[in-house]
């Protein structure tokens, strides 16, 4: 539930949007670990190596990071989107159907506040319906009308080149593993 962008499923029942209906990452990894034996790649809210260590300890084979790489110079995200990640104006994220009809997590802005409460569960029709509005907002330089996809850890974003980011995460992961006496981590960072 912490992850930025669209969720993997196509949940069509708005009752499934209730805060208590979606599992947090550590609970989810532990539950899946006890159910199936295939390798688990954990994603959602991971911004630091210490968090990757936590999901590896919980039984994941790897951690996957999205929002952490969004602000890298190599990322093709819109500059307004990148700047919004650590802008105090956008204090928190929300799961919303406002932009596409499918639940997706983004920084709370005017578009989400105005249209989230009544957005219907109709994907991809709503995506196509709002596409022009989102493009116009980007053209006007108005982040309040754009889809600012972001995970819950967005405030921890670091503007580092991607290779440096991977190195930094690896050092943090290793340090966290040593601190807690974990075995050498097998984590892959993508
Ligand atoms: C800007 C952005 C765009 C994304 N686009 C997609 C996408 O097109 N398809 C998809 O399956 N996941 C997409 N995701 C979700 C990521 O694959 C990943 O699950 C997520 O970023 C992990 O959570 P984190 O952002 O908190 O690290 C996107 C995430 C972000 C932040």
Question: Your description of this structure?
Answer:
The protein is mainly alpha-helical. The protein has a single domain, classed as TIM Barrel. 36% of the residues lie in helices and 8% in strands. The chain has a 3-stranded antiparallel beta sheet with strand order 1-5-4, with no helix packed on it. It has a two-stranded parallel sheet with strand order 2-3. The two termini are 19 Å apart. The relative contact order is 0.21. The model has no long low-confidence stretch (mean pLDDT 92). The structure holds flavin mononucleotide. Residues 2-6, 43-46, 65-68, 70, 149-151, 153 line the site of flavin mononucleotide (FMN). The site of flavin mononucleotide has 18 residues, from strand 1 and helix 3. It comes from Streptomyces himastatinicus ATCC 53653.
Task: Offer a quick outline of the entry.
This protein has 190 residues and is mostly helical. 36% of the residues lie in helices and 8% in strands.
- The secondary-structure element order is EHEHEHHEEHHH
State the strand order across the main sheet.
Answer: 1-5-4
- For the secondary structure, the number of strands is 5
Tally of helical runs: 7
What is the CATH architecture annotation? Answer: Alpha-Beta Barrel
Apparent shape: globular
